[in-house]
Structure formats: C-alpha cells, structure tokens
Please model this.
Amino acid sequence: MMSSQSVPSASPHEFDRLLESIHSAHRDNRAGALADYIPELAKASPDDFGLAIATVGGRLHIAGDAEVPFTIQSISKAFTFCLALELTGRDTVLTRVGVEPSGDAFNAIIFDAVGKKPFNPMVNAGAITIAGLLCETLGASAFDFVLDRFSQAAGRPLTLDETVYRSEAETGHRNRAIAHLLLANDVLKVSPDEALDLYFRQCSIRVTASDLARMGATLANMGENPVTGRAAFELRAVRNTLAVMFTCGMYDYAGNWAYDIGVPAKSGVGGGILGVVNRQLGIATYSPRLDARGNSVRGIASFEMLGEELGLHAFDCTNMGSSFVSTLIR
Ligand code: GLN
Model:
C-alpha cells in the first residue's frame, strides 16, 4: 500500500488548507437549482456544501458539510458497471451496452443506431441495462450484493434512503419508458420492473462526501479499500470503469470536463460529484444546486480549483502519472 506522500507537492496539511480555501471561495455561489423531477430531492438543503479527499494511504481530509447524507444517484452507475464487468466479463457487458459518449442528456431516449444498445453505462439507458444484467446474474440478491460492495468500498455499512427510493419509483415514468425500449431492443433480458427496482434502489443509497471520497480512493487503489485492506472491486474491472468515467461520466459535459479538469469522474442529481486520481486520490464534492445538465455547480467550480492547484489533469505537465510507474522510470 502506498502512502499519501505519492501525491505531488502536497502534504496532508496542505490538503486541509486547500479544501478550506475552496470551500470559502465557493460558499456564496448560489447558482443552479435543486433537482425536483424526483420530488424528494427537492427537499435537500440547498446551501449544503461539503468537500472530501481520501488518499490511497488511507487518510481523509474534509471541509464543510462532508458528513451530510444525500443519495448517490447516478454516481452508482460507475460502481454497478464495475460489478457487472466482474460478474459477467467485459465481452458480455459489451454486447449490452457501448462505451461511447452519447453527447446527450443523462435521461435521453437514444440508442446506438447499429446495435440498438445504449451508448454507455453512465447514462440512464445504459445503467438500467446494467441493472438488468445484475438481476439476470444475481436474481433476488442483486441489491444486497450491490449494497454490500458499495459498503466495502466506503469502508462502512451504507443504507437505502427508503423515502427517495419510493419517490423515484412512483414518478420514474421516463426511466420506465427507457426500460421498455431496452426490452424491445433485446438488451434487457429481465422484466423492466425488476431492472428498474434495482436501478431505483442503487440510486437511493445514502452516502456522504466522505463516503464517496473513500469509494473513489478504493477505485484509485486498484479496487482495494485503503483503510480496511479488503477488495471491493476487481482490478481489471476498475481500469474499464475509470476509462468510461473519463469519457462519459459527466453526461453531455464529459468533453468539457476531460478538457478542463482531466480526471475520471461521475456526477449525480443528488448533488454529488466523484473524481478519481488513479493510484492517488478519491475526491468528492456535495452541493445540491445543479446546472442545466444536472451537474453540481459548486462541485464543478471546486474541482476546477482543486485540479488547478494540485495539477491533477491527466495531461498536466506536473502530473507524473502513477507513482508505480514513476518508481520504475527513475
Ligand atoms: N435516479 C436518477 C434518474 O434516473 C439518476 C439521474 C442522475 O443522477 N443523473 O433520473
């Protein structure tokens, strides 16, 4: 296991200072609006703002409301994709869902013209397909399996927010329409109700920014939780997951994000954004006011500042790549 000293030019103390300065720089930004198409999400406290960095050395640094719970929403898609890869293999997963950015909204009703597959697993159509694949493989235990692995990644037992789950299940008609089209396209092989129930549940898992940062550090640490030392995800699946997060994780902002911020990331309409610096950090922001694309406004601003200060962009000249490689090339 590596220590957090593998992080370029920042001691833990500098992380704390940096998070505090980012928090105060963006605290008064009230742009954006709460998601309200899932009625229960409109009840979040709009001013909540939390930041967290977890290192592969097992350290956690936080600022603001990093312990306030919210629902993981679409950030779950990255992790369920990772689990489907592990359980069914890369080739099977690719027969159901592509790995191309869609360039469209997360809830768009569009499919690949040739294969009729969803474009990628980070948008709703792709994630509902992956939920169906998990149900096919795991049957009735699918949600317990997902919750257990998410908990392993976070390093503590996570729970379902029943109220958000019910709210989404009662109102998710667009996702229902998508699931029926997936059935018609023959990429969903279980009933739409079964796939949707897992999908609505996985989106309603309660996390904090600290949890998300820890889950990100588990991905950064090749699937092993840096604190507990237990494997939550399979190594090969982690690589594929990070690649798709890099190209597709921010919906129709994915290109801009890769250009400006340059780390694999995933956002959710609950207000979370998770970023991963491979072999180094999990970074999470929580602020529930969203822009028109469904990404947290203060989250994006915080990642921009953090990425700039720490030189996190994958192609930044100060980013020396993974410390594993840098020990080999020196
Ligand atoms: N549960 C949400 C939905 O399906 C997730 C969307 C998101 O976070 N972008 O609409």
Observations:
- The longest strand covers residues 50-55.
- The two ends are 19 Å apart (CA to CA).
- Strands lie at 50-55, 60-64, 70-71, 159-160, 205-207, 265-267, 272-277, 281-286.
